[in-house]
Each structure stands twice: as structure tokens, then as C-alpha cells.
What does this fold into?
Amino acid sequence: MAFVLVAPEMVTAAASDLANIGSAINTANTAVAAPTAELLAAGTDEVSEAIASLFSGHALDYQSLGARMTAFHDQFVAALTAGGGLYSSAEAAAATPLQDLLNVVNAPTQALLGRPLIGDGADGTAPGQAGGAGGLLYGNGGNGAAGTNPGVAGGAGGAAGLIGNGGAGGIGGAGGSGGAGGTGGWLYGNGGAGGAGGAGAPGLVSFNGSNGGNGGNGGAAGWWGTGGAGGAGGEGGAAGGDPAGIAYGSTGGVGGNGGSGGNGGWFAGNAGAGGNGGVGGDGNAADSGLVGGAGGVGGAGGAAGLFGDGGAGGQGGDGAVSDALAASHGGTGGDGGRSGWLSGNAGAGGAGGAGGSTNGIGNFAGNGGAGGNGGAAGLFGNGAAGGAGGAGGASQTFTGAGGAGGTGGAGGWLYGNGGAGGAGGVGGAGIGTGGLGSNGGNGGTGGIGGLIGNGGAGGAGGAGSASGPSGYSGGNGGNGGNGGAAQLIGAGGGGGVAGVGGAGGTGAAAGVTGSAGASGVGGRLYSGNGIPDIFGRPLIGDGADGAPGTGQAGGDGGWLYGNGGNGGSGAAGQAGGAGGAAGLIGNGGAGGTGGSGAAGGNGGAGGWLFGNGGNGGTGGDAVAGLPGLNGGNGGNGGAGGAAGWWGHGGIGGQGGTGGAAGGFANTAPSTNGLLGGNGGNGGDGGAGGWLFGDAGAGGQGGTGGAANDPLVGGSTGGSGGAGGNGGTAGLFGAGGAGGTGGTAGAGIAVGSNGGHGGQGGYGGWLGGSGGAGGTGGTGGSGDIYAGAGGTGGSGGAARLFGTGGTGGAGGVGGASDFQFAGSGGSGGTGGAAGWLIGNGGSGGQGGLAGTADPVTGLFGGTGGAGGAGGAAGWLYGAGGSGGAGGAGTASVYPGLSGGNGGNGGNGGAAQVIGNGGSGGTAGTGGAGGPDDPPNNIPAGTDGQDGAGGAGGSGGLVFGDSGG
It folds into this structure.
């Protein structure tokens, strides 16, 4: 049977075009009729008159033929027009009863549930209006409307029904959050993309730039489909300043955080990628704006269901460039999402944003952001690599330090290799012949392998940058990350290569080369080096402790019963010994403390049947720099040991303290050690028992080295070490809490950033809550430019049943005695709930801004953004609440603006039944400086309040959206 497909509107358009063509031909024929039909003879002879008569006769024949063709053309156009009308009438006649029938079918569900049975949801029209839900049986959700007006969040995308795609979230108005993407169809359909956050408005005269809005979270898929991508964070607004130089808009706005990617289909489908963090707002030298805004945090990648790939974490936003005084720091990369429970690849961690550079008269570049952690695999699969740390910003005076690399994800619980740790960022380059060398970032720790699988390699430490001016030492290289441990069968990951110290200026020493990371512990049954000698340990009895000062490993406990021996401490520069493993029943030995600047030993594994893993050893404290040399980096803490069948994982070791800067050499005042060493990273917590037991907590990051004393030439304190990640539970048990980030060392001129908190560990496969994320470290104090607080760690996700972990709070910004107080760190993202049932974790609170000295200080700091709440379980559960934004602090100098408050985090989404999480409250801006009537200086403006977070979407079947 043949079918003819006709589009009436196309037929009507064709008829109109043909009529226009006919009119044009008729006009041309009329114009040439008289000249051609009445052609004059060239002469009076008979031949000329005959030729003229011949051509005139042809012209008359042409006009006669043209008239007949015009009549035919008009008849054809009339027939085509009539045919199009008939088709339109037939279509309308057929559509009316079908539409009436569809209206009858849709009426009950429309009245009862507010949505049709079949049909697409309406797009939002008013500013910030949500898209309508699609039909319960079939239909796509409508797109949310853009916020349009300043501060108005974009509308959420509508949810699909049984089959269909979720609507896209609307773009936020200036400084407003993007709308969340709608949920995909229960049976089939993709989640909608989250809307981009609105760009912050530039500051008016004497006002700071506004913060960029957070990107909306991507919508989750249902049974089968792809999760929506998270929206990008909005760019921060430029500082306003004052051309007269009387009242100052001190800072550009902070870039908005990227939205989290939506979860993939709970049976099959890839998860959505997290959105990129927004770029910070520029400082504006022309209008006396002074400091660029910090980059936003990248959004976390979504998690897959049974089969599928986890979403990649978003890249952290770059810190803003400033032509005036100082640039700002890059944002932290988002964590990668978990792969499918049964199979799939985990999502890679996002790269940290680059630190802002300075131009013109600017002196202080920003530090690079830390890389995001790689996602963990499910039952089978490899963990993903951690993101690379961002490069430090370039400057003609003080360059920025490189960011720390992210931790690699854990391999599949049964089979899979751990992901590699991310490389540390390189220190910022000097501009021209200027620029003091800065430290490279520490490499990330490799992920733990599965029961069968190798541990991931540790990330390489970033290279320190060279110093341009003569007499000043180069920046220190970052420490290599520790290799991940294997569990039962597999080789431990190799330690990361140490970063090379930067070249010193003329007559000065090069920066200190970092310490190489320690190799991970091999599998207890087979580690690639042959089956262990069964006669090398007793049947019953404890293993011997390693001798102090030797770095000797502890002996293994008895095969049937006995604890592993403790590892011996290391000599100067030597790693601590690993703790011995238990046999069938017993606890693993603790790792030894590292020698000066060296890594602590890893804890020993607990007994196969019953026993706890040993605690990781503390990293060694670095020695202070000699005259003319920078302080050394603290050693990384050792990883906690894994439990066996039943038991708790060991706690990760604390990172060592960085060494203080050496300052001026007594015999050669032209050689200056300016930098304190970085604190070591905390060790990761050990895995909980395969059947039952809680995982170990991550170790605290080490404190950065102080810049020493201004009289001896120190300048910049070292960055705080990153907190270790919490361990992963087995079948039943809670994930380990992430370690607290280390406090940055006190600076004389410049303070460095606090370490970011560790990520909470995953809860048990069948039951258990995710671990809480670690709190970010406090930023270092600085007389001119204080450091930012560290980013809080993401909460760990639950697996089948359980509550997601709470995101860690952002660290407090550093205090300043004279000029710029540090910004608060962003709160961590709440962990996702159990795949089937559970509540999402709450986002971490944004860190409070640092304070300026009440007598000599100038500018207040900007509060950190709150973290996004975690998504609820697919069948039942509430989304997590967004974290509150941190408060900005007051400026004390006459005429200066107070610091902006941080944005609240977006609430997590519910899935089928449950309420969406409430958005986090906005942080309040700090008070402006007082007036100074004798000098005609008006009072400074108060800092702007942040934008409140958008509420998460309610369940498809039942539940309210968050407020």
C-alpha cells in the first residue's frame, strides 16, 4: 500500500511562491509588449518593412502564448491553493475528534495529579517559572524559564512520565542559580540538563562585583537513560571601584559552583558530567578595583545504576586576572561519579582551576585549585584517575602555588584496579625577569584495588617554579602521592615521583625537591612477587615491632592468631615502616612515623576472619630551611590498613608539618629563603570488613610551614596538606569520614590556602551510610594577602540502602593585619543516598571569611559557597539540604566595601517518592568601612549578600520540591 505524506503549510507556501513568480513574469511581459509588438522599420524600403512586420508578428504571437500560459499558471496556483486548503481542512477535521478524545483521556489525571496522561509539559514563560511535567504515560518535561531578572533562579525542568526526557533547567538571572534539570521517564528517558548560573553583575561605583550563580543539578534518569549534565557556574562580576580613588570596590565576585551531574538509569545508562565552575570576576585597575574573584568549584559527576559509566567531575573555575593588586585562587575540581554497581567505568575527577595572574601593577597571583577525586568502581571495574591540580598564577612579584592532585578512585569491590592519583600543579611562572618562585602541589594518592586488582599509582608532585630576581630561592617541588594498596591479590601502586624544585635566582639555591610517595601495600595472598613463605611467620603469636629509626616493617602475626607488629619509625628523610599483617584472627600493626619530611608507613591488614586494620603512620615533620633556603615539605601520612571478613578499617595517618622558611643568609644577605614548606597529605582510611565493619577515617592534613619572621626575610607560608579520604565499607558498615584539611602556615606578606578536606568513604553495599566529608583547613594569615580556607570534602555515597554523608564545611579564611582577609572555602557536596532507599546527605556550610585587624586592617573577606545536597534514593527518600553560604566580614578602613556573602548550595533532588532538599541560605555580606568626614571619605558600602540555593525537585509520583 502506498502512502502520501502531505504538509499543508508547505503546499500553501509553494502556491504563494508560484503566484509571486507568475506576477513577476506578467510584469516583465507587459513591460516589453509595446516595444516589441510595434517595432519600427529600419528604412522605408520593402525589405525593412517586411523584417519589422515579421518581428512584430512574432512578438504578438509571444504575447498571445504568454496570455494562455498566464491563465494556465493561475489555474494551477488556484488548484494548488485549493488542494492545500482541502488538506488543512481534512487535517483539522481529523485532529479535532482526536484532540477531543485525548482531552477526555487526559482530563482525570490532569484534575487529580495536575498533569496529562499523554503530552509534553509546557515550557515555563514567566521569569524563573518551572517547566510543566510531561504526560504520565508519554511526554517530555517542559523547559524551565530563564531567571531573566537579577538574582532570580532559573526554573526547574519538568519531569517526564513513563517514557520521555526531562526538561532542561533555565539559566539563572544575573547572579541567580540555574534551574535543576527534570527527571527522565521511569521506564526510558534522559534527565534534563541543569541550567547555567547567571553571571554576576559588575560592581557599581564603590561596590564589589556580585558572585556568579551556581549551576543547576542535572536531572536523573529512571530505569534506562542518561543523566543530565550539570549546569556551569556563572562568572563572577568585575569589581566596580571608583575612578576618583576615594571609595573602593575591593573585589570581583566569586565564580559560581558547577551543578552536579544527574544519576544514570538505575538499570542502565551513563551518568551526567558535573558542570564547570565559573571564572572569578576581574579586578579592575582603571576603576580602583583591587582583587579578582576566586573561581567556582566544579560540580560532582553523577553516579550510574547497575550498568553504566559514572560522570566526570567538572573543572574548577580559573581565578580572575587582576591589573591592580592581587588575583584570586582557582576553584577545586569536582569529584568523579561512581560507576555502575555491576559494571562500568567510574568518572574522572575534574582538574583544578588555574590561579589568576596579575598584570600591570598587580603583585600577588592566585594559587591553583586542587583536583577532584576520581570516582570508585562498583563490583567490577577500574577506579578513575584523580584530577590534576591547577597551575599557580603568574606574577611579576609573588607567583601562585600549584594545587594538589586528586585521589584516585577505588577499584571494583570484587575485581578492578585503583585509579591513579592526579598530578600536582606547577608553581606559577614569573613575568619577565620578576617573580619569586612558588611551590608545586602535592600529588594525589592512588586508589585502593579490589579484592583482586592492583592499587593505583600515586600522582607526581608538581614542579616548583624558578625565581627571577637574584638572591631568592626557587619554589619547592611537591611531594609525590602514595601508591594505593591492593587487598587480596594484586600489586600495590607505585609512589608518585617527587616534584623538582625550581631554579633560584642569581646567587641563590634551588628550591627543595619534594619527597617521592611511598608504594602501596601488596595483596595479602599474592602481590606479584611470589607466594609468601608460609614458614616466615608463627602459627600463633604477635609479629615483632620494627626497630625505631630504621624504617623497618613490622612482622606479620601468627597464621591462626596474632597481631601484626608495628612499623619502625624512619630516620631523617626515611619513610616509616609498614605495619605487619595479622593472620586469621588479629589486628594489623600500626605504620611507623616517617623521618623528617618522609611519609609515614601504611597500617597492616587485619585478620582474614576477624580483626581491625592498623592505623597509618604519621608523616614526618620537615625541618626548617637553613639561611637562604625554603622550608621542606612535610611527609604524607600512611594509609590505614584494611580489615578482613569482619572488622574496622584503620585510620589514616596525619600529614607532617611543613618546615619554616629560612630567610636571609647571615653571610650573604642577597640569598633569601622565602617560602614555608607545604604540609603533608593525610593518609586514606582503610577499608571495612568484607562482610561487616566500618571503614577507617582519613587522616588530617599537615600544617603548612610558617614564613618565619619579617626580620629574617621569610614571606609566604606553606599550604596546608589535604585531608585523607575515608575508607570504603564492605557489605554492611559505614564509610569512613574524610580527614580535616591542614591549616596553612602563617605568612608575612602572603598566606597560602588551607588544605581541602578529604572525601567521605562509600557505605556498605547492602546497608550503611556514607562517611562525612572532612572540613577544609584554615587559610594562612598574611599581612598583605591572607590565604583562602580549604574546600570541604564531599560526603560519601551510600550503596543500596542508607543515607549519604554530609559534606564537609569549608575552611575559615586567613586573617590579615593590614590589607586583604582571606576568603572562606566552599562547602563539600552531600553524598548520594542508597541506590534504592535513603536520604541524600546535606551539603557542607561555606566557610567564614577571614577577619581584618580592627585597627590596621583594610578589607574584609568573601564567604564561601555552601555545598549542594545529595540526591535521594531512586524509590524513596528525601534530597539533602544545600549548605548555607558563609558570611563575609567587615572592612574597617574608611570608605572600603565589606566582603560578599557566599551563595547557598542547591538542594538535592528526590526520585520517585520523597521531597526535594531545601536550598541553602545565603551568606550575609560584611559591613563597609566607616566614613571619614575630615578627608571627605564616605562610608563604604556593605558587601552583597549571596544568592540562596535552589530547592531540589520533588518525587515523580509524590513529593514536594524543596524551598
